[in-house]
Amino acid sequence: MDKIILASQSPRRKQLLEWAEIPFDVLVKATDESFPPTMAIEDAPVHIARNKALAIKELIKSKTQIPIILAADTVVVLDDKIIGKPADRDDAVNILMQLSGKTHRVITGVVLMHASGETAFADVTEVIFHPLTKDQIEFYVDKYQPYDKAGAYAIQEWIGVVGIKSINGDFYNVMGLPVSRVVQALEGLT
């Protein structure tokens, strides 16, 4: 497989591509991560990922052969409301208190830009948390400081190990990239 460009600084996305043995370079440009207020929640992460990919395409447009650009965005949705990254410790604790004992959805939008256009999709995973105590939540937030994570948690950390009752869907989607689906899409392009 030819080397692709990952339009993300996420260490989790990098790790997942490494595990899948997909060769890549990272190239990132700051982009607007907003979306139209009337847009369906399921479409928002694809919209944001598309903007990230377009920004990279614009950066490399002078190249004769544009490589495949992979961009992704992950959102956490509880009661049809997107929960973003926490602003601070109190926000992280409050977010996790809201998720405690409930089911939420993790939606990752993926865009692959390539010479013949783009391939775009969203992957949805349902996550059910056990009821968590405030002490457990504060322990997690203080030790792991999940301030760069949508929903204020990472499934592969302590809270995922002890706090998640079950998931329905792709575990790696919750980490930030439905990597098996990405691999299938990339193989479809060759």
Question: How does this model look, in words?
Answer:
- There is one protein chain.
- With 190 residues, this protein is α/β, with parallel strands linked by helices.
- The chain has 7 helices and 7 strands, in the order E-H-E-H-E-E-H-E-E-H-H-E-H-H.
- Strands 1, 2, 3, 4, 5, 6 and 7 form a 7-stranded mixed beta sheet that branches.
- Strand 3 and strand 4 form a beta hairpin.
- Helix 3 crosses helix 4.
- The longest helix is centred in the N-terminal third of the chain and has 16 residues.
Task: Give the arrangement of secondary structure elements.
Blueprint: E1 4-6, H1 11-19, E2 24-26, H2 44-59, E3 69-78, E4 81-83, H3 89-99, E5 103-114, E6 117-129, H4 134-144, H5 158-163, E7 164-168, H6 171-175, H7 179-189
Parallel strand pairs: 1-2, 1-3
Antiparallel strand pairs: 3-4, 3-5, 5-6, 6-7
Helix pairs in contact: 3-4
